[in-house]
Design a protein that fits this description.
Radius of gyration: 56 Å
Strand order of the largest sheet: 3-4-5-7-6
Shape: elongated
Helix content: 10-25%
Strand content: 25-35%
Number of strands: 32
Structural class: alpha+beta
């Protein structure tokens, strides 16, 4: 409100500060009206009743005039409140602010920065402003131009949220979880899942593009807006989807775009509706993953295999667009035909070779080599390797094709029979050791088994590793050759004469002999006798008192004097006794024996009259536990592979248990 000098005096404004357009607040204006009322001339006091009544009426009239004047004064300011968006006129443009007249008691101020984006601003222009505060702490009217623009757009957004109206905006940047879109100056959030019906792999490609969106969520207090473009795309595709589903037929060929790839297949967009091509329907051939033959966003042709209109599920196929590879298979792959393919799978029983997409043949492990004993196909072939084979069997109904690699060459066993007749002597290399014998290679790819019982005439062994090790050269003789089973039996001890004929005279019952302990077993001692033959001394023939642990009294390398009490030529066994030896000696020999081995004292007379204990022993009792892992072995890669093959080649031999 603008006041004059007289009104200023009423409210106490110093004369030196009064200007032609001095401004006061609404409260001060009310005070002016009150002072004017109080300063109105009072009627003279009358003493008669008529004068008194007239004075009261006049006083009431003056009060009504003062109130009316106050109302007029207040109405002159206009109805302005915080939060209003109203029109104003530019009255002044200063260095850092712009003055705006909105018909209030004073002009409002707006920072000049808020008009930076305005092309041209002149005094007298009408602009829309937002009332932030009617009075700040200094009593000034605070306005905002940018806030007015925001509120104008905000109302459009609220209306769009209610009516579903489509809005257009420009993508300005990418943030975590999606994009930011500018809607007439207000930033809204476009989630990544709401950009398109297809998964978006490059969000940066959308920056700077204009998109149509619909407001799906508004947070008034936080002034946040969430929009969606996907919902518009889905609405646009809804009619197209209905038309596609209505026109679907089994066997129909369609064109689509690969929308997604999973471990079990691919999803193809047929133009508003998706269909699944299972991994088994992608190709007639074997594939480990759809990505082997398909790429995202690739355009493909598919055939409709089945569909469910209620559940909107569509099963598609791609391999069905080409003929089945097993048609006319007999003409393409006749028996005995030489073929070439790629190894696509390895099993314990063989290798599958792909001849073409959808046509695979099995090379059984027995059809890989004539001579090598193969335990696993990986010893000869590897995944992805190209191999040649011969078609040996074809079953079109069961879709089975049998191949052979070894039949590419003549069967070498026809020559082996002639080259290695029974009784022929050869030099070979020990390739593999097993519990029941040793496999000896007599030429490349040809090996035979030397059974454990055919290694030595005189030694009692449980494992071949006691006498030989892998890589040793060994002289062998062919004992047997079986053409049907592809098996050669070899012997080593047969190269020497059987010594047991001569040993019968050397170790007849009652003969005394000295021997050296070479092994200690649970039931007695194994002693090496002259001529290198092993003899057995039962524990009960070492002392009259029981010995709980033989290794506590006797040690490997100790010498013993003994007497032969049993000679078994047929089973190649010699049994000896220390007690039988001591019976024919004097007491001093008995005492010396007991002292040497720290045994309980024995009386010669007792030894003489005591009958010898019975000998109850099996041939296996004379064999001690042997640990082949304790034998240090150095093998190259080829020997390691041969070792694996040996356990396979031993298959026909394993039916034979090691003989004593």
């Amino acid at each position: 409100m603008k006041i004059n000098a007289v009104q200023a005096v009423f409210i106490g404004v110093p004369m030196s500060e009064i200007q032609p357009t001095t401004e006061i607040s609404p409260g001060a204006a009310a005070q002016v009206a009150s002072i004017i009322y109080q300063e109105l001339p009072k009627p003279p006091k009358k003493v008669n009743s008529y004068s008194r009544i007239a004075a009261i009426r006049e006083r009431e009239a003056d009060e009504r005039d003062a109130i009316e004047m106050l109302k007029m004064l207040e109405n002159s300011f206009g109805s302005v409140k915080q939060g209003d968006v109203i029109q104003g006129k530019v009255t002044a443009i200063e260095t850092d602010y712009v003055s705006i007249d909105i018909g209030f008691k004073s002009d409002g101020r707006i920072p000049l920065d808020e008009f930076r984006k305005t092309a041209e601003l002149n005094i007298g222009d009408t602009v829309e402003v937002y009332v932030e505060k009617v009075e700040d702490k200094d009593g000034r009217l605070m306005l905002s131009y940018t806030r007015a623009n925001f509120m104008r757009v905000w109302q459009k957004i609220l209306k769009s949220a209610e009516t579903g109206e489509i809005m257009r905006g420009i993508i300005i940047r990418r943030i975590k979880g999606g994009l930011v879109i500018d809607l007439f100056g207000i930033e809204a959030f476009l989630p990544g899942s709401q950009v398109d019906v297809r998964p978006v792999r490059d969000f940066d490609a959308y920056i700077g593009k204009e998109l149509e969106v619909r407001v799906v969520k508004v947070n008034g207090p936080m002034e946040n807006v969430v929009v969606s473009h996907k919902i518009l795309v889905e609405e646009e595709m809804a009619e197209q989807r209905k038309a596609i589903i209505a026109s679907l037929e089994k066997g129909q060929v369609l064109e689509g775009t690969v929308k997604a790839i999973t471990g079990f297949g691919i999803f193809v967009d047929l133009g508003g509706v998706d269909g699944l091509v299972h991994i088994t329907d992608l190709s007639w051939g074997r594939i480990s993953s759809p990505t082997d033959i398909i790429k995202l966003d690739e355009t493909v042709n598919v055939v409709v295999l089945d569909f469910d209109q209620d559940k909107k599920r569509i099963s598609l196929g791609m391999k069905q667009l080409t003929p089945h590879p097993w048609e006319n298979i007999e003409e393409k792959y006749p028996l005995r035909m030489k073929v070439e393919g790629k190894v696509v799978s390895l099993t314990e029983y063989g290798a599958f070779v792909e001849l073409e997409k959808g046509v695979e043949g099995l090379v059984h492990i027995s059809e890989m080599s004539w001579t090598q004993h193969i335990k696993h196909p990986s010893q000869l072939v590897a995944l992805g390797q190209s191999v040649e084979a011969i078609v040996v069997e074809l079953n079109k109904d069961d879709k089975k094709l049998a191949l052979s690699m070894k039949q590419l060459e003549p069967d070498p066993w026809f020559k082996i029979v002639e080259k290695y007749p029974v009784g022929s002597v050869h030099k070979g290399v020990v390739k593999t050791l097993t519990n029941f014998g040793a496999f000896v290679e007599i030429e490349k790819g040809v090996d035979g088994l030397v059974h454990i019982s055919d290694l030595s005439w005189t030694k009692k062994i449980r494992h071949p590793g006691e006498l030989i090790k892998r890589g040793d050269e060994l002289d062998v003789i062919v004992l047997d050759l079986t053409m049907d089973q592809r098996r050669i039996s070899l012997g080593h001890k047969q190269l020497l004469d059987n010594p047991w004929d001569a040993l019968e005279d050397m170790f007849s019952i009652g003969m005394e002999s000295e021997g050296k302990i070479v092994r200690i077993i649970e039931k007695g001692l194994i002693c090496e006798l002259p001529s290198g033959v092993d003899g057995f001394v039962p524990g009960s023939h070492l002392s009259q008192s029981p010995i709980k642990v033989l290794s506590d009294k006797f040690h490997v390398g100790d010498s013993l004097n003994m007497k032969v009490i049993e000679f078994d030529k047929e089973n190649k066994r010699i049994v000896l006794s220390v007690l039988a030896y001591l019976k024919t000696k004097d007491q001093s020999v008995v005492d010396e024996y007991c002292e040497k081995f720290q045994l309980p004292a024995m009386i010669l007379s007792d030894v003489v009259v005591t009958p010898p204990p019975p000998v109850e022993i099996l041939e296996s009792d004379m064999l001690y536990e042997f640990n082949p892992e304790a034998i240090p072995v150095v093998m190259d890669a080829e020997e390691s592979a041969d070792e694996n093959s040996a356990s396979s080649s031993a298959t026909p031999e394993t039916s034979e248990q090691p003989q004593a």
